[in-house]
Design a protein that fits this description.
Structural class: alpha/beta
Strand order of the largest sheet: 3-2-1-6-9-11-12
Order of helices and strands: HHHEHEEEEHEEEHEEHEE
Distance between the termini: 33 Å
Radius of gyration: 16 Å
Strand content: 15-25%
Largest sheet: 7 strands, mixed
Length: about 210
Amino acid sequence: MDKGTLRRRAREARDALGEAGRAAADGLRAAAVGASGLWAAADVVLAYVPMGSEASPAALVDAALAGGKAAALPRCVAGRRLEWRAVGPGWRDGLVRHPFGMAEPDPGRWGLLDVPAALAGGAAVLALCPGLAFDGEGRRLGYGGGYYDRFLSAARACGGPGTFAAVGLAHGCQVLDAAVLASVEGPWDEPVDALALDGSIMRCAHTPSTEERL
């Protein structure tokens, strides 16, 4: 099965959950992430504005701000890169529409958050990542632009003294058998370290060092 077919089927399965079902799952997922060691340790939370029927991290953005953590949302910029903007209370009213159709933080309102500088300064950075499909080994199927693959690769290359962990946010129907995503995996594809599902958070098989922080 090719990536295009996998993307279409994953989107259809996610859409079929319905708005009420997705909202209930988002609440359970936020509670699971909020109770995790990764969340407790995080100084900086990188989230996203959900598009369509994506799993929503909105409650976690609110919780990060209420708990004194830095929270940032991405913008898609030249070179198929993600640029992070630190947001604050009222962030929902400080969004603008990207030409691709998704909502992004208004660069005229929210300042840059330099992820490499945060890591170099010793911050624990937690990235909440969207996707169309995942597997238990951490593989992630995105939308094909490579934005998150580039970001995750660059963030991991920064090294310490700070720490970096990527958590995929997904509904249970988005988790596929490892053999399926392995069959379409490319050399540039970057995995997530853990998956936050509908009420649980699980370490992915490729990152045993993450286990004690979940």
